[in-house]
Amino acid sequence: MPENKKAKLQRELFNDKKMELVPTRDGYGKGLLTLGKTNPRVVALCADLDESTRSQWFAEKYPERFIQMGIGEQNMVLVAAGLANYGKIPFIASYATFSPGRNNEQIRTTVSLSELPVKIAGAHAGVSVGPDGATHQALEDIALMRVQPNMVVICPCDAVEIEKATVAAAAVHGPVYLRFGRAASPVMTTRKTPFKIGCAEIFWTGKDITIIACGQLVYQALLAARALAKDNITAEVINCHTIKPLDEKTIIASVKKTRAVVTVEEHQIAGGLGSAVAETLVQRLPVPMEFVGVRDRFGESGEPDELLQKFGLTSPYIVTAVRKVLKRKK
Amino acid sequence: MPDIHDKKVRQLEKIANAIRQDIVTMLLAAGSGHTAGPLGLADIFAALYFHVLHHRPQQPNWPERDWLILSAGHLCPVRYAAMAQAGYFPKKELLTLRKLGTRLQGHPERLRLPGAETTSGPLGDGLGQACGIAYGLLLDNKKSRVYCVMSDGEQDCGVIWEAAMFAGKYKLRNLTAIIDRNNIQISGMTEDVMPLESLVEKYKAFNWHVIEINGHNIEEFVDACEEAKTMYTKPTVIIANTIPGRGVPEIEFDYTWHGKPPSAAEAKRFLADLRTIGGKISSEHE
Predict the structure, then answer these.
(1) Taking CB atoms and an 8 Å limit, are A69 and B122 in contact across chains?
(2) What structural domains and CATH numbers belong to chain A?
(3) What are phi and psi of A125, to 5 degrees?
(4) Active site (catalytic) residues of A
């Protein structure tokens, strides 16, 4: 199997019975607990979604450093900006539709333009939020965040990776947006899987197509790569957890080899990971490209798996996109 | 901050007058900007920078300083003028207001101007930031105080009331908010655009200690700042009733002066008014 050994992924990636499913938000909770122990400057704020965002774990262990904001996402950003200005490293958590959705201007003025180390945790991103429906399924948050100068945007692939990302975010000089989902999703990575903000990781090596994915859909990309291998199409799967700054070096090196790209994300195609990759490739190495993502529509209620399928975000759709783009490849 | 005596008050009034003249001069040079609000706040800013605040103009990031947050960023000419008077930067830099490459942006930016403390302009965003700073200071048992100057118009913003609730809940006793109650905003009188009254009752209901003063009476303002320090379980808001355009009789109370600068001829008249205190004294500059 062309799995990249350096990525140190789980041994039994495709064994349904052994694959652990964990909500990515759990990783945020664990990451905060680590920071509580290691970094006295870290404080956590939450807008009345403590349990759901796993901020509660920090609140129970470090009550003096947890600030309950009530349902006030705009003020949460402002208080965090004040705390950061004073010298703290605030992590603020809510659902992504509210933060960075509802409080976008406050983030722009008092965090990004002010270049303050506020870390924004946006939970419940993507259609896989499930039964709550469109109002609670953030599909535009990557776009909102990546257009703000100074903002780092990270969408980790599983609960283990988001734990690492949370800890790493505290060390970033400026603001960071951390995006995560609600549903339990496959844990592909291990403690030993390399993680560095701004460095995309090659999970699967290949030479025919580069599949660039982020978030829990990285697993769907791996499933697609495995399916394609049966037809002698070798896919390179890149876990592009950092959408900004984009790891252009890794992407360009891969695309030079494969000469075709499919991007995969649980987000609007407009403005997300695919857009970021296209902006780079169109200028530096134009190649045929297909986008797997949400096509200019809102989500709806349903079970996470049903919705991922309905919105065309699962591995068969990735396989179809790959076949389509390969036809355009010269 | 010692008790204030008459001589000191007179001194601060003179500084306020100098700040007003600088505001007119810099707005004329800039060719755009806000006139009425900054003129109305000159007395309060003179008192803040020359009596109330613990600060070091040569060391803007002095860790023990009091923090002055200007929430309504468009009022920045009064802050810039007061900072220059206090020695944060050379007075001649005031003439760069709003020009390419300046540290004195049309709305203040913390990264460009040390001592500006926050980046502001979008209304309503200052009080929450002041709350965050105040919360951090209390968390670390620091003695510094946080002052937050707001306009009355920005009390329209919902986020102000989120912050007000927060400050009340967490008993931010080291926070003193100041509302410039000049009754105007860009489209007209505040009570016509979106009625605010009773501001006193509103803040009381949010668990604040409320003091209402004449915002041109420096002694009253300083006393209110002192009184705020005696509050152990509540933040304080000083509602300062002011006259927009104060010091220039021809524009006082006129909301159309909210967002425009004087012409050369107007600036000349305004400066003459300020130098002669409305014609009450003669000026050697005439």
Answers:
(1) no
(2) 5-15+192-328 (3.40.50.920), 21-186 (3.40.50.970)
(3) -95, 145
(4) 73
Mean of pLDDT values over A96-101? 98
ipTM above 0.90, yes or no: yes
Distance CA A124, CA B18 (A): 55
d(CA B154, CA A201): 47
Nearest by Cα to A9 from A157, A127, A165: A157
* Angle, CA A159 vertex, CA A317 and CA A161 arms, to 5°: 90
Alpha-carbon distance A295 to nearest alpha carbon in chain B (angstroms):
33
Specify the 3-state DSSP secondary structure of B27: helix
CA-closest candidate to residue A178, choices A161, A192, A190: A161
Residues in chain A whose beta carbon is closer than 8 A to a beta carbon of chain B?
A: 43, 64-65, 67, 69-70, 72, 74-75, 77-88, 90, 105-106, 109-110, 113-115
User: What's the predicted TM-score (pTM) here?
Assistant: 0.96
Structure tokens at B163: 């912050």
* B36 membership: H or E segment, kind and range: helix B36-40
Q: Which two tokens stand for residue B33?
A: 């900007």
Q: Cα–Cα distance between B3 and B223 in angstroms, integer?
A: 8
Give the Cβ contact number of residue B2 at 10 Å.
8
Name the stretches of chain B with pLDDT < 50. 286
Q: For residue A1, what are the CA distances in angstroms to A20, A192, A257, B178? A: 21, 20, 19, 67
Q: What is the CA radius of gyration of chain A?
A: 19
Q: pLDDT, tens digit, for every residue of A181-190?
A: 999 999 999 9
What percent of chain A shows pLDDT beyond 70?
100
Q: Are A307 and A128 in contact (CB under 8 A)?
A: yes
Confidence class for position A222, pLDDT limits 50, 70, 90: very high
Residues 6 or more apart whose CB falls under 8 angstroms from that of A320 comprise none
CB contact under 8 A, A83 and B133: yes
Calpha distance B154→B162 (Å, rounded): 13
Phi, psi of A148 (to 5 degrees): -95, 120
Domains in chain B (CATH in brackets) are 6-275 (3.40.50.970)
b (16+ CB within 10 A) / e for A272-309: bbbbbbbebbeeeeebbbbbbbbeeeebeebebeebbe
Q: Do B166 and A69 touch (CB under 8 A)?
A: yes
Residue A236 bridge partners (DSSP): A210
pLDDT by residue (tens digit) across A266-307? 999 999 999 999 999 999 999 999 999 999 999 999 999 999
Q: Which residues pair with A176 in a beta bridge?
A: A119, A152
